[in-house]
Amino acid sequence: MRYQITGKQIDVGEALQTHVRTELGTVLEKYSQRPTDATVVFSKSGHEFVCESTVHLSSGLTAAAKGHATEIYAAFDACAEKMDKQLRRYKRRLKDHHKDRTEPVELSGASTYILASEQDGSDDYDEPESLQPIIVAEMETRIPSLSVGEAVMQMELAGAPVLVFRNEKKDGVNVVYRREDGNIGWIDP
Question: How many Cβ atoms sit within 10 Å of the Cβ of residue 166?
Fold first, then answer.
């Protein structure tokens, strides 16, 4: 498994990197025998350290967790505990999908755009000069080909509010999202 352990304006020493590899490896070994790579990023927010980790599984699913603490090791431990809890919650489903799926999840490319907000923070909202939004950034993203159940699980594991996916059964683009009432919504055009 490949590890990428970095710090945003923080020096991540060899001892911390060894601790991350050991602890995260133990968590992943319990629940997923085939992780491909893990990214762990440390940063500082005010007086707290923040640890964000993302693990890509061979099935194509991604698990993400985030931890905060006043010490850097405690921030990682909180993050690893959240990752452990997520993977434990989805262990049965993850193992079932490994058996059903003989090939990794197929990914298709798409463009992602970040649009500028029309409001500049003032209370008065003026009519825009043009209906064309200003594009701030353009990035490439991947759209997985999943079943609806896998898409919901992927959204939960990643901690994302919404997931766009290609429905394996109907071969169309679908969306699952977290509703305000806590339930999951599914858009199937």
Answer: 19
Residue in 60, 52, 54 with CA at minimum distance from that of residue 34: 60
- The CA distances from residue 136 to 112, 116, 118, 139, 160, in Å, are 11, 6, 12, 10, 22
pLDDT digits (tens, 9 = 90+) for 104-120: 566 667 777 777 776 55
Residue numbers of the domain that contains 43: 2-90
Which spans in the chain are helix H?
Answer: 14-31, 72-89, 91-100, 148-158
Domain count, the chain: 2
Q: Is residue 79 domain-shared with residue 142, that is, in the same domain? A: no
Residue pLDDT, tens place only, 37-60? 889 999 998 899 999 998 887 766
**Helix (H), strand (E) at residue 166:** strand 162-167
- Report residue 77 as tokens: 């431990």
- CA-to-CA dists, residue 48 to 4, 42, 74, 75, 162, angstroms: 22, 11, 10, 8, 28
